[in-house]
């Protein structure tokens, strides 16, 4: 089987459409369709089937994608063996990171990477939901992603997931709030509060919906803001309360904000480094992930 056609099949699987795969491969949709048809002719079984106005993988197509990952990962390992002859990891590593993790980890990570001659990172902040992560992995070497700890895990058959951090989510209250002096707050005590959450589908909102299902207390969401720094200012000004990550919430003296854990409830998001199977065989990628883990270790210590 032609390796180029296998790569085309993998891009189609990662991105979900012929048009998106064509953009990633810098070619036309007709060229992608031609490659898929040629690969189907090689293997002798249907790999795609009509789905609405587009295509989707058949069972055989999904099985071949899994094998294509193995073949292409083996090729990447063979190519990366040349890197292992160097005394230190070298090259550029592309990273996608969601904004609050960037706020938490990126300054220290950049300092750590600067200590490795020849190692560079190219970082983009991306407002990502968990379903978007596999598509981002197609464009980046490492994706720092987050999800509700009760949400399904990322597909480990095609992705390699390195746990970085379980970050508790605390209730952010204005400093003068009636519950600000309590060590912990009950969700029932907040039933009549106005909440500020994130957009639908993002992990913190997933946690809030999960809490509502588990406790029967449904928060009244009045604003949806994805930038936690804006949310902090709104809470401090008395425009609502919020569920915010513990390590990135600004509760310093004078911030006008206090964070309090929820009593009797585990509420957290998981922060993970996600990459394609075989990507960590490249020394530069492995080193960046180790530096991420070291930065998290220092943060949580």
Describe the structure.
It is a single chain. The chain is an alpha/beta fold and 301 residues long. Helices cover 39% and strands 24% of the residues. It contains nine helices and eleven strands. Strands 3, 4, 5, 6, 7, 8, 9, 10 and 11 form a nine-stranded mixed beta sheet that branches. Strands 1-2 form a two-stranded antiparallel sheet. Strand 3, helix 5 and strand 4 form a beta-alpha-beta unit. The protein starts with a helix and ends with a helix.
Tally of structural domains = 3
Cα(first) to Cα(last) distance is: 50 Å
CATH hierarchy class name of the largest domain: Alpha Beta
Say which CATH homologous superfamily of the largest domain is assigned. Periplasmic binding protein-like II
SS content category: alpha/beta
Number of helices: 9
Described by strand count, sense and barrel closure, the largest sheet is: 9 strands, mixed
Q: Strand tally, please?
A: 11
* Percentage beta strand: 15-25%
Could you say what the CATH topology of the largest domain is called? D-Maltodextrin-Binding Protein, domain 2
Overall form: globular
């Amino acid at each position: 089987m032609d390796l180029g056609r296998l790569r085309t099949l993998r891009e189609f699987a990662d991105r979900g459409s012929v048009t998106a795969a064509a953009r990633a491969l810098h070619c036309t949709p007709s060229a992608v369709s031609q490659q898929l048809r040629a690969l189907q002719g090689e293997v002798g079984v249907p790999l795609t089937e009509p789905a609405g106005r587009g295509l989707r993988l058949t069972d055989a197509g999904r099985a071949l994608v899994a094998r294509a990952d193995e073949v292409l990962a083996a090729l990447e390992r063979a190519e990366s063996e040349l890197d292992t002859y160097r005394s230190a990891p070298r090259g550029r590593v592309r990273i996608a990171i969601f904004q609050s993790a960037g706020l938490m980890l990126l300054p220290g990570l950049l300092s750590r990477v600067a200590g490795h001659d020849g190692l560079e990172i190219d970082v983009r902040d991306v407002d990502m939901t968990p379903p978007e992560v596999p598509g981002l992995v197609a464009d980046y070497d490492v994706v720092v992603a987050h999800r509700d700890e009760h949400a399904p895990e990322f597909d480990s058959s095609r992705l390699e997931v390195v746990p970085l951090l379980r970050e508790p989510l605390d209730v952010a209250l204005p400093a003068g709030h009636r519950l600000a002096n309590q060590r912990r707050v009950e969700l029932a005590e907040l039933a009549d509060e106005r909440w500020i959450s994130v957009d639908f589908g993002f992990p913190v909102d997933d946690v809030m919906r999960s809490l509502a299902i588990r406790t029967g207390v449904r928060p009244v969401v009045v604003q949806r803001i994805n930038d936690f720094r804006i949310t902090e200012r709104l809470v401090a000004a008395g425009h609502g309360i919020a569920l915010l990550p513990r390590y990135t919430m600004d509760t310093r003296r004078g911030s006008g904000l206090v964070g309090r854990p929820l009593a009797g409830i585990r509420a957290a998001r998981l922060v993970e480094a996600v990459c394609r199977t075989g990507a960590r065989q490249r020394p530069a990628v492995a080193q960046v992930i180790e530096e991420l883990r070291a930065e998290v270790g220092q943060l949580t210590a």
